[in-house]
Design goal:
343 residues; Immunoglobulin-like; flat; seven-stranded antiparallel β-sheet; alpha+beta; 39% strand; five-stranded antiparallel β-sheet
Length: 343
């Protein structure tokens, strides 16, 4: 801008007012100052652009997840995708394939007879303070505990779409006992059968797969569903839960949980009250809040030598993402061992 003013002044002085060269230094000084200001601005703009570029390069993976940008096949593909995203944000240009295809959230899978309609409604209930539940006891000793971190609440509206009224399963239109097979990819394991509200009309069994990557299911039996009739079924299942089972007899186990800054610190104490040492004490843990991270470790100390801390690596079970084992080499008689780790 200063340069334009300087050029304008020169044109006015020489072409219009017909001055001589004695007035030339003034516009030249303004022109030189304009050039200096321009170069300084260019340097500052370049510096700011470099800072923005470094920030973007450092956090572009986080930005990619937030914007829902798809994965890249290579460096050239990444440049093309980011160019499309920039044009979309700046000028609202059309984008071809820069973003991940939208997908539906996991939902329950229901198998029912042809003349039975089932509407399923679910909601997730987070548990702020997971309570310990005793799962197993052997001679009065606790050998298994669990904690639920989130439940899924299910409400099933079940209706018979047949128009014929009937009173038993031998007549047309009466469904008699209706069997519903229900699984949910969000619920990997079902440790305890849910309690139906109406025990006379509803009963349930757990169908276990016992296969890696497969989920357990529920087989509900609904009785008394007449033609054009309907009923409702409500129950809860743990979505995220923790379960620890002591696989070695002759020990007592206590478990404690501390929650801090989004992490859960687990402490196990194995006590040997017997007359002999116990070798290879095993605790099997199932925790489906997240897959076990790489490099995951814990440590244990014995009461006979509390100053010596021993690092321990969990052993993953074949085909499992959430199930692993801790093995303590030895628990001395009349002593105890403390195992600690955090997730």
């Amino acid at each position: 801008m200063l340069g334009l003013f300087a050029i304008e002044q020169v044109l006015v002085l020489f072409c219009w007012l017909d001055h001589d060269f004695a007035v030339l230094p003034g516009p030249l000084i303004v022109l030189i100052l304009a050039f200096i200001v321009y170069r300084t601005a260019v340097v500052q703009a370049g510096t700011w652009g470099s800072v923005v570029q470094i920030t973007f390069d450092t956090h572009r993976n986080d930005l990619k997840k937030l914007l829902g940008v798809r994965d890249f096949s290579g460096e050239e593909d990444e440049r093309n995708v980011w160019d499309q995203v920039s044009r979309l944000l700046l000028w609202n240009n059309k984008v071809d394939d820069a973003f991940v295809e939208p997908h539906s959230p996991p939902s329950p899978l229901v198998t029912a007879p042809a003349n039975v309609k089932v509407d399923v409604h679910t909601s997730i209930l987070n548990i702020a303070q997971p309570q310990q539940v005793i799962l197993q006891q052997l001679n009065g000793n606790v050998t298994g505990v669990s904690r639920a971190y989130a439940d899924i609440h299910y409400v099933l509206l079940i209706s018979n779409t047949s128009n014929t009224e009937a009173t038993n399963a031998n007549n047309a239109g009466d469904t008699g006992n209706v069997y519903l097979f229900i699984s949910d990819p969000r619920v990997a394991r079902i440790e305890k059968m849910p309690t139906p509200q109406d025990k006379e009309q509803h009963c349930v069994e757990i169908v276990r797969t016992n296969e890696p990557g497969k989920v357990d299911a529920l087989l509900w039996c609904i009785s008394g569903l007449k033609g054009n009739g309907s009923t409702a079924l409500s129950y809860k299942l743990p979505m995220y839960f923790f379960k620890a089972t002591l696989k070695t007899p002759g020990l007592q186990m206590t478990e404690n949980l501390e929650a801090e800054a989004g992490k859960f610190k687990h402490t196990f104490v194995l006590k040997n009250d017997g007359p002999q040492d116990i070798l290879d004490a095993i605790i099997e843990v199932f925790d489906n809040r997240q897959p076990v991270p790489a490099g995951f470790q814990g440590y244990w100390v014995g009461s006979e030598d509390p100053e010596q801390i021993r690092i321990i690596d969990p052993k993953m079970l074949p085909g499992e993402l959430y199930c692993y084992r801790w093995k303590i080499p030895q628990v001395t008689n009349k002593q105890h061992v403390t195992l600690r780790y955090e997730m």
